[in-house]
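ingest -> validate -> predict -> emit
validate: passed (alphabet ok, no gaps, 135 aa)
predict: started
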Amino acid sequence: MTAPSAPTEEGPGLTVWYDGGCPLCAREIALMRRLDPDQQVCFVDLETAQDTPLPRQVMLERFHVSTPDGATQSGAAAFAALWRSLPALRPLGRVAAWPPLLAALELFYRGFLRLRPRLQGLVRRWDDRRRSVEP
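emit:
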């Protein structure tokens, strides 16, 4: 794992732990990487990570980030922390950290997690179809 580089609002760098086997996650992380041109955030695929701050299965069940001091956040709080680390999304991350809104976002995220397996299947089928028609 490569260490995060320069300081951000979250400290010297946030580590994002993601499920590289999830087509939804892979798309989202690709977007976040594009929004991080200065590479302030370290993105770690849980499929290839050697060490994780929590058991791998726990980390695969929800979105997690780790701060440089070793604190780990998950769910909506982790998304808000990531957004605050990316200049283009920083205002959104600040608003999302407001406790009443963060609680609502967490409820929304939990609902999304129930739909995630079906959405993954749809995206995989979409990808398979696209690959089968490409020359």
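The radius of gyration is 15 Å.
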